Amino acid sequence: MADKSTYRCAIYTRKSHEDGLDQAFNSLDAQHESCKAYITSQTGLGWKLRDRPYDDGGISGSHMDRPGLQALITDIKAGLVDIIVVYKVDRLTRSLTDFAKLVDIFDEHDVSFVSVTQAFNTTTSMGRLTLNVLLSFAQFEREVTAERIRDKFAASKKKGMWMGGPVPFGYDNRDRQLHVVEKEAQSIRTLFDLYIQHKNIRIVKIKADELGLVSKLRIQKSGNQTGGTPFSRGHIRTIITNPVYIGKTRHKNKT
């Protein structure tokens, strides 16, 4: 970063989840206050806060498709920012690849990057090395967390718990357990009986229509209704091949 009398500082804040963002003083505010205080402490060096927020609330740091970050990058390319200040490195990004891209942008436009709580600065080679090591651990932590969630999800499904998604026709979801809805189950049994008898989805479709069988009526949060219509051949095939109707469940490529 070239020597100047005044350095225009931009504060970037991010929070992965929307929980608590509606509070009068939330996590983004706390990050902003810490960064603002740090900039104030550097006033003697010519640091000056830009009156422009760059916030991303409820957005993951695993990608760069964030409105606040993109606005910051736009202003950097327009030559409006000299120093980027964040509360913590992983607020900017959790991806080592994305971080490398951002550093290239910072270098190209002579912009420095500072983490308040970790005292890192990309203007020095040691600062770059330390940041890369730190971000590597941040990415490692995110991947380990994702693996842990996937393992827990698989273990829960193995125990027979329903882990989300549209509930299959013939069942109701209560406390993550599927319970038979007898009225719908009669239609399912009929479809299976028809398939066992005819071994042909097209004929099953014709017979099901003759019997007046219809799909599950679902009411969306918006109040719109879907279903309650005759089964299509594709829907019948999905039902016939769904292992949930023999007491099993799929996860990835395993049943």
Task: Reconstruct the topology from this structure.
Layout: E1 7-15, H1 27-41, E2 47-49, E3 54-57, H2 67-77, E4 83-86, H3 89-92, H4 96-108, E5 112-115, E6 120-121, H5 125-158, E7 171-174, E8 177-180, H6 182-198, H7 201-211, E9 218-219, E10 225-226, H8 233-240
Parallel strand pairs: 1-2, 1-3, 1-4, 4-5
Antiparallel strand pairs: 5-6, 7-8, 9-10
Helix pairs in contact: 6-7
Short description:
The chain has 255 residues and is of the alpha/beta class.
Descriptors:
255 residues; alpha/beta; Rossmann fold; Hect, E3 ligase catalytic domain fold; 6-stranded mixed β-sheet; 8 helices; elongated
Provide an overview of this structure.
The chain is elongated. It is of the alpha/beta class and 255 residues long. It has eight helices and ten strands. Strands 1, 2, 3, 4, 5 and 6 form a six-stranded mixed β-sheet that branches.
